[in-house]
Amino acid sequence: MLHTSIISVRAVRTLLSPPDIPTPALLRARSIPNQRLVKALGISSTFVSDDPGVHDNFTREAKVLIGAVSAKDGWSRLVDVAETCVNRFLDAKSLDYATFVQSVTLSVVLAGLLGTDIEDLDPVDVAFVTKAINDRWAQSKSSTTLTTEVLDRINHHIIRWVPDRTNPLNLIIPAYETMWRVAAIAVVYSNRDSLLRDAFISYNENPTDDQFRAFADEGTVAQPSAEAIICEVLRLHPPTRHITRAVVVPWWKRPFVPSIDVADIEEAHKSPLFGNDPESFNPMRFHASHAAPKRDQLYAFGHGKLKCVAASWAPPAAAVITAKIMAKLDDVAFKLQEGPCIGKREGWEGWSIQRV
Q1: CA 31/CA 49 separation, integer angstroms
Q2: How far is CA 238 from the centre of its chain?
């Protein structure tokens, strides 16, 4: 397939939200490049379907779940679930860092969003499922032949944990797959910088919308908000680095015309629109004094009619997971052992959490 890579912010916006294009055509353009995920993970959601009915059902179901955990009681429960999950997966002597964050995040999605009993989440089974999802996703981008055996084992656990839904992976994958990486990277930067650490400790103690957005003045130095830190992770390390759309052209043009447009979110987020030194990690660029970019100017969740339905909920949820982990990484009981470089979906070799 021929590809065209799009990196300017304006062109990315236009690709993701083209004017005067009906929703069925947008769904078709999105679903065609995502067909690899049908075989890899067995999903049948709007991400791989051009059926407007499938899209409406998925959106409705997701909004109901998000609404339930956004209400006051639901949010308090999610916060408690996150703390319980962090404690549960800190039991091992030395922990592979990626496996730990993946396990916590998947468990928060299962127990916090979908009502799974935390006691049913055996750490060995959870670690298997997270690694298998990761591997299957990566393999779907290569020419690796995917067998059904691993997918069957994934579903064996998922159906046991979420017995009352048809194909729970439709909801689990979009919530889990990006959020674990946002939390993992937010923890790394916050572990390196006491101002960022303090922002998450404050959010851990008071996990409200106001605290999420609150910048603080520590003497002569301004402290970024938890929201600003998560936004900067989404900007500099977008978990969805590329968003693809199929270009429908007549068959006789296909050898000569690109059939896939690729929005390079990673490059677009390094635009001067995001302030000075866009290659560096600086959450204070989201402070009002910096002619600040707004969260809705980020494209990590897409843009337009098909923007991720969880775009408003996911950042504070990722911040809760980050805050609960940071509360434990106090260098008294636990510390983060860094590896050679910050990973993406892969590349976390050498990173671990260790008992002090």
Answers
A1: 5
A2: 8
